[in-house]
Every structure is written in C-alpha cells, then in structure tokens.
Amino acid sequence: MVDPGFPQSHTTGTTTTTTTRVATNIRFDPTYLNPRNIPGVLKCAVLEFGYCALWTFFYLTAAAACASWGGSDPAAAAAAFFGFVAMILYGADAFFKFKGWRAGEIAQGERQIQMAGPDMASPGAY
C-alpha cells in the first residue's frame, strides 16, 4: 500500500554561486633578477645595508642597557658582552655592504656574463 502523504517521485535542485577574487599585496619584481638592470640590483644592496645598519643600532642600545646592569647581575653582563659582539659583527657586515654598494657589486652571488658567440647554438623551444 502506498503512503498517501508521500509522493511517488520528487525533484531536488541545488544552485551554487562562487566568486573568487585574488588580491596579492606582494608582487614579483623581475628587475631584481635581470643582471643587465643595475638599479634593480642596487636596490637590494641598499636594503641589505639598511637592515644591517639598523640592527647594529638595535644591538648597541640593547647591549648598553644590559651593560648598565652588568655590575650587579652577571647574566646582564653576559648579555651585554654578546650584544656588543653581535653589534660589531652587524656593523662590519654593514660596512662591507656599503663598500660593495659604492663599488657597484651585486648584493648576493656572483655576476655571470654569458656572451653569445657565432658557435653558440640557440636554445630550443620548450
């Protein structure tokens, strides 16, 4: 016997709407990878120099604050010592990065120049 309250067949429908929007705040800048573009390379060297110089200042202030308590607290004296060592290392790195930037060196790696000669074959298609 068939239940009078339930129909023999029924239809079910589903509607789905999806909207995807991608907004990236970090964008790829290919000028950093082009060895012929010296200003793009120098931007990276200047950023690294600024980073090292800023951390030199941070370690100077933190180590000086620890050194002021170093007479009464041996842990503060040890922190001051290692803070001054880190300050010297970051300062030396900033100095060498500044000299390299002024000399036109690239920030990381080695400059590789490849000249195409008459005997050099062209790369094939992918």
From TrEMBL:
Keywords from the UniProt entry: Membrane, Transmembrane, Transmembrane helix
| Presence of keyword Transmembrane | yes
Ranges annotated as spanning the membrane: 46-70, 76-96
State the organism of origin.
Petrolisthes cinctipes (Flat porcelain crab)
PROSITE patterns from the entry?
MARVEL
Q: How does it sit in the membrane?
A: Multi-pass membrane protein
Compartments it resides in: Membrane
Report the InterPro entries cross-referenced here: Marvel (IPR008253)
Q: What are the record's GO terms for cellular component? A: membrane
> Please, which domain of life does this record's source organism belong to?
Eukaryota
Q: What is the lineage of its organism?
A: Eukaryota, Metazoa, Ecdysozoa, Arthropoda, Crustacea
Q: What is this protein called?
A: MARVEL domain-containing protein
Q: Where is the MARVEL domain?
A: 1-102
